[in-house]
Each structure stands twice: as C-alpha cells, then as structure tokens.
C-alpha cells in the first residue's frame, strides 16, 4: 500500500492509497485521539460504505450524520446540521469527525471540524476520484455562498487521508471523468512527464484499470502534497493548483451549483486558460491542441456554456479569491507542465477567448 506523507511539521499526516482500506482499524484507529467519533456522509455514500467504515471503528463511540447529496447542499445551513448532530449527541472537544464521501462531504466536514468547539480532529475518507486526488489533501475546507463558490472556509488539515481505491468501482462514469480532469491538471501545471503518461493511458483510466488508477492517484497526491508542504496557505505556488478554477467557478456559479460537475467546469476552465495562453503566445498551437485533445478523449468539456454571456462571465470571474487590489489574476501556461500566475495579460485577449470558446 503506497503511503505518502504531507510534510507540515507537527501537523504532518499520511495519505494512504490502495484497495481494501475501509475496514482496516490498524490504519484509522491510530489517528483517533479520544473515544467519540462522528462519521459525516451522505445519502448516496452511506448505504454503500458506512457499515464497512464502522467495522474499523469498533471500540469507539460512533455516531453518524447523513446529509442530502449534492453541491447545492454545500452551505452554512448544512454545516449547522452537523453541529446539531454533534451537540445532540454530546460530542466534546476530543471527538473526531470522519468525512466519508466526495469533495462536498470532505469540504463540509473539514470546515465543521475547524469550527466545532474551536477545532476538533478530523479524518478524510475520500470516495470519489476527485476527492482522492485533490480535495481530501491539503486542508482547504469550506462552503459555498450564493454569490461565490467556496467563499467561506478555513485552512484546516486532517489527521490522515485514507483513499480506498475499491470505492471507485461504484462511482458513476461522469464522476470518474470529473476526477480525471483534476488528474490532468497536475500534468499541465507542473508534471510534463505525467502529462505524456496520461496521453498514453487516458483510455485505461476511463476503463478503471486498477494499476493505471493507482498510479494516477499516487502521482497526483505526490504532486499536491509537494506543493502544499511548500505553501500551505497559498501565498504563492499553491495558487497554481487553481489552474482553470477562475473560469470554472464562473461556470459553476453562473449555471447554478450542481448543473455541471465541478471537475467538468474545471476541465472547460483549463481549456479556456490554455486557449488564452496560446493567444498570448505563451504556448504553441500544437500544445494547445494536445491539451484539448486529451480533455476530449477523457470525454470532458472544452467549451464554456453558451448561456453565460461574455459580460456575465467577466463579472463572475471578478468574484475570485485570486483577485487582488481589484485586479484579476489568472493561472496560465508557459508550456505543458509549466503554470504561472499572472495579471499581465491583455483583457482584449481574455475577451477573445470568452467569445470564441463557447458551445454553439
Ligand atoms: P461530490 O462530493 O458531490 O461527489 C460526487 C457524487 O458522487 C455525489 O453524488 C456523491 O454522493 C457520489 N459519490 C461519492 N462517492 C461515491 C462512490 N464511491 N460511489 C458512488 N457514488 C459516490 O463531488 P466531488 O467531485 O467529489 O467533489 C467536488 C467538490 O470538491 C466541490 O465542492 C469542490 O469545490 C470541492 N473541491 C475541494 C477541493 C479542496 O481542496 N478542498 C479541491 C477540489 C474540489
Ligand atoms: N484544489 C486547490 C488547492 O487545494 O489548493
């Protein structure tokens, strides 16, 4: 079983990746300090994996809270449901919250853990590809606001991440694709060799070939852990992990949360960022075509939805955490595997990208 370590001094933690990890008390128990545990899951994941998770927790006092499923429930209201469950069941400061689910459950549970009694322990058990390669690692937690995605939250690290790759067997096809988008992201921003591997193995990934999935998850987590260890609070390099997100969040907010999957919106966002990078002369046209071709082979969108006009798109992009001093900063490419953050682009070219890269 590959175990990576995210190095953050006294807050370092392991990322365990492999099949059959859910029921393993030897993996989870050492990271639970007290006797109380609250498993947070949703109505889709709980019937599939809650019992298995609880078998690894014999000897602890376990409660669970089952939330409705969906991005539209990643809200302050839902957070309150978790707090109510904790208070009703008299969980004290030694409790451990366990996030069992995809990125929505992970982000909500992590934020609940950061706030409950000013901070309790939590563990991530990601069950989507997207959560296993990205959201469960690195301690970004939070909820959406109607005016902006992920606008309320905290940096709060888990005690460990347990990515049981068997859980991916029940993941719907579209959700798998959304996770592949984040995998491709690592190749584009900092790992050109991985991008080439993805060009050779994208069909195997889509077919859930276990060896290919295991390799892609480990490589992605290694890239993420590396970046977060150097820049936990996103004062610099970590912003590169948001490649495609300024465009993507505009799509998610503009269409209403949940209309497109997060990973799908980010895929289109990365394709638009590549288009702009090409217009700026920072990447070549053949490289831009390679990027688009990989997303297309992964069955991911490479255009923004026509319903959001360019003006509205620009307004939505202005509500972004990377906006600084009123100036929009974007993650762009200077080559495959070489992302940069820049406010130094001609707004006319951004406009041209938005006008050109739309669904018919
Ligand atoms: P999700 O949590 O909504 O899960 C996708 C769907 O798959 C849901 O319906 C879920 O119930 C279902 N599901 C989960 N595991 C399953 C399984 N094993 N089998 C069958 N169905 C399963 O979406 P996601 O793509 O995992 O995460 C997206 C969220 O993650 C967004 O809110 C995004 O903002 C956030 N995110 C956070 C970070 C971060 O660093 N914190 C990074 C990337 C994305
Ligand atoms: N998904 C972006 C980050 O964790 O920083």
Describe the structure in your own words:
The chain is built from 13 helices and eleven strands. It has 360 residues and is an alpha/beta fold. β1 and β2 form a beta hairpin. The longest helix is centred in the middle third of the chain and has 21 residues, at 210-230. It starts with a strand and ends with a helix. The structure holds nicotinamide-adenine-dinucleotide and glycine. Nicotinamide-adenine-dinucleotide binds next to α2, α4, α5, α6 and α10.
Q: Tags for this entry?
A:
single chain, alpha/beta, Rossmann fold, Dehydroquinate synthase-like, alpha domain, 2 domains, four-stranded parallel sheet, binds nicotinamide-adenine-dinucleotide, binds glycine
């Amino acid at each position: 079983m590959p175990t990576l370590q995210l190095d953050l001094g006294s807050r370092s933690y392991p990322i365990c990746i492999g099949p059959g990890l859910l029921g393993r008390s030897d993996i989870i128990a050492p990271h639970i300090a007290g006797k109380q545990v609250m498993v947070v899951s949703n109505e889709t994941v709980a019937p599939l994996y809650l019992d298995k998770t609880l078998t690894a927790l014999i000897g602890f006092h376990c409660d669970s809270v089952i939330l409705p499923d969906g991005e539209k429930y990643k809200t302050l209201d839902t957070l309150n449901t978790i707090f109510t469950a904790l208070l009703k069941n008299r969980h004290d400061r030694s409790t451990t919250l366990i996030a069992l689910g995809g990125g929505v459950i992970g982000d909500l549970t992590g934020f609940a853990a950061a706030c409950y009694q000013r901070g309790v322990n939590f563990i991530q058990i990601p069950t989507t590809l997207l959560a296993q390669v990205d959201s469960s690692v690195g301690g970004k937690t939070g909820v959406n606001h109607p005016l902006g995605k992920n606008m309320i939250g905290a940096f709060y690290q888990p005690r460990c991440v347990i990515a049981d790759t068997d859980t991916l067997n029940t993941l719907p096809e579209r959700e798998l694709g959304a996770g592949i988008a984040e995998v491709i992201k690592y190749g584009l921003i900092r790992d050109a060799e991985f991008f080439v591997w993805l060009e050779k193995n994208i069909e195997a990934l889509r077919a859930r070939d276990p060896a290919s999935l295991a390799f892609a998850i480990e490589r992605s987590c290694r890239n993420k852990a590396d970046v977060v260890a150097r820049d936990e609070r996103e004062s610099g390099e970590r912003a590169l992990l948001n490649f495609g997100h300024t465009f993507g969040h505009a799509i998610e907010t503009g269409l209403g949360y949940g209309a497109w999957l997060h990973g799908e919106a980010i895929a289109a966002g990365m394709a638009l960022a590549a288009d702009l990078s090409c217009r700026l002369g920072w990447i070549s046209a053949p490289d831009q075509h390679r990027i688009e071709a990989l997303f297309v082979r992964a069955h991911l969108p490479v255009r923004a939805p026509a319903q959001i006009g360019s003006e509205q798109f620009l307004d939505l992009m202005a509500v972004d955490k990377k906006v600084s001093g009123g100036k929009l900063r974007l993650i762009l490419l200077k080559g495959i595997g070489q992302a940069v953050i820049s406010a130094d682009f001609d707004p006319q070219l951004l406009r041209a990208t938005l006008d050109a890269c739309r669904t018919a």
